[in-house]
Amino acid sequence: MRISRFYQIQKTMLQYGLDELLPKHWQPWYARLFRRCAFWLRNRYPEHAVGARLRLALQSLGPVWIKFGQMLSTRRDLLPAALVDELSILQDKVAPFPGEEAQRLIEQALGLKHISDLFADFDVTPLASASIAQVHTAQLRQDDGRVADVVIKVIRPGIRKQILADLALMDSLAQIAARFLPDGKRLRPREVVAEYRKTILDELDLQREAANAIQLKRNFEGSDSLYIPLVYADHCRNNVMVMERIYGIPVSDIPALQAQGTDMELLAKRGVEVFFTQVFRDSFFHADMHPGNIFVSREHPENPLYIGIDCGIVGTLNAEDKRYLAENFVAFFNRDYRKVAQLHLDSGWVPAHTKVEEFESAIRTVCEPIFQKPLAEISFGQVLLNLFNTARRFEMQVQPQLVLLQKTLLYIEGLGRQLYPQLDLWKTAKPFLENWVKQQVGLPAIWRQVKENLPFWAEKMPQMPELFHRYLQQGPQQQQALLLQLQQLQLQQQQSKRQIINAILAAASVISASITFNQGSPWLTALLGVIAAFFTIKTLLA
Fold it and tell me: Which of 183, 258, 263, 330 is deepest in the core (most CB within 10 A)?
């Protein structure tokens, strides 16, 4: 199955002529020889531009590859504009499956005889179609007799089998990379694939997505920065989700945003603030923030409000990772490269034998040129390349739990570049992170922990006298039992030591008896034999 899928991928790439994306001087001789030998896999779409061919190829390969194209579509600094424009179509304009089949799936999932039993209106023409699911508009009948404008999200039929095949192939390639590539162990490709596997399979469960959306909505209740549509949880199933229909402007539609007078600088800053709020305040962040999932409210353009949809992929961080990340960010913003290097050592992200001074110098070389510049003047592609080389030099391991966060940060950067290229990312994020770090250390943090633990302490307080009395009673007994165990262990060690000595003496006597026997000394041989038997018996009886 994996071999056939690998062949299918290679076949698709060549039939769409994507080998043209790789310059000739970058192709090794064996790759050029293989291309000439595979003459039956010629480019079948020469009339299309290479960008359109790349989009069609990724679309034909399925959701795993479509999501890869979605991520690339946010990186206008890394790819030519023509390629990015084509890849942007993958964000919400993937070829749909028939609307009649979607209606049948909805009726089956919700136990309806006909779609009209629950929905006053249903449009069989999809509103949007993405890599894993597509969306249809409808009007939901409510208990009070009113109808609500909603959208119904439906998982593509038969998609799980295709995803599992691609994941199996990715795991095989990761095994090969981990074993044979020079950086294989450091990059931990199998762990990264395992993390991606969990993420994309979770995205196939729309009940999980509904729960994620409800949590995000609660986290930003009353916020003037981010709005999450209402989810009708009673009408959600594993493959169907019903939620409030929103009317906003796609964040990628820059002309429409400018035409209504949107404050683009404030919009860009709020995007950064929303990201860091989700990560460091809530430890629960939307991890699929490509432009197809982000809209801007048409109301109050002078005070713009983001609208987030498609919460199938979310990320979480534990307290330790969150603290290290925040301290690293603040240290970067303050150009305290020594602290950055020390934090990486303390967290175990680089080996303990790393020299802090050398690591500090390498980080400074990469990061110093990017400060106090607007996004338009920063080559993040070059920065990422330099950081990768630095990581390889110092054996820095990839952290699988941070892969989603890294991907989301790439989306945010691409979004900020499109909205307001003059945005100073560092200046916007630094005050937020400094305030968060202050809340995590010092007296405020201690007082907050005391308040959090106070109910537990109050519950245990009445039991404290009894527990203290029990300790006073059992303490000496436990100490005596521990002392007895130590004495028994000491005796066992002494016994083992005597056995080893007796065994060595017995073996030495046997070897000596063999030597004297060969030299013709029967009396001495007999004496040594008796000695060997004596020590052997002592060994067995000890």
Answer: 330
Provide the angle, in degrees to the nearest 10, between the axes of the packed helices 63-72 and 50-61.
Answer: 140
Max CA-CA distance within the chain? 116
Residue type at 193? Answer: V
- β-bridge mates for residue 139, sequence order: 121, 149
- Taking the alpha carbons at both ends of the chain, their separation in whole angstroms is 62
User: Cβ distance 423 to 383 under 8 Å?
Assistant: no
Helix (H) or strand (E) holding 314: strand 314-316
Answer for the pair 91, 73: CB distance below 8 angstroms, yes or no: yes
Q: How far is CA 179 from CA 170, 173, 389, 518, in A?
A: 14, 10, 20, 55
79-83, 240-244, 337-341: range with highest mean pLDDT:
240-244
pLDDT at 51: 82
Q: Which residues pair with 315 in a beta bridge?
A: 285
Q: What is the mean pLDDT of residues 309-328?
A: 81
Q: Let me know if 202 is a catalytic residue.
A: no
Q: Which residue did the predictor score with more confidence, 61 or 461? A: 61
Contact assessment for residue 248 and residue 298, using Cβ atoms and an 8 Å cutoff = yes
Q: What is the pTM of this model?
A: 0.68
C-alpha to C-alpha distance for 153 and 384, rounded to whole angstroms? 36
8 A C-beta contact, residue 140 and residue 242: yes
Annotate 107-162 with three-state secondary structure: HHHHCCCCHHHCEEEECCCCCEECCCEEEEEEEEECCCCCEEEEEEEEECCCHHHH
Contact 69, 54 (CB under 8 A): yes
Instruction: Name residues whose C-beta falls within 8 Å of residue 154's C-beta, 6 or more positions apart in sequence.
Output: 102, 105, 106, 133, 134, 135, 136, 239, 240
Q: Which of 85, 171, 282, 288 is catalytic?
A: 288
> pLDDT tens digits for 427-437?
777 787 777 77
Contacts of 143 (CB under 8 A, 6+ apart): none
CA separation for the pair 25, 46 (Å, rounded): 22
Opening angle at CA 268, ends 266 and 269, nearest 5: 65
Please check the confidence at residue 215 and state whether its pLDDT lies above 70.
Answer: yes
Give the tokens for residue 27: 């192709």
**308 three-class SS:** strand
For 227, the 3-state DSSP assignment is strand
From residue 3, give the alpha-carbon distance in Å to each of 12, 168, 184, 196. 14, 10, 21, 21
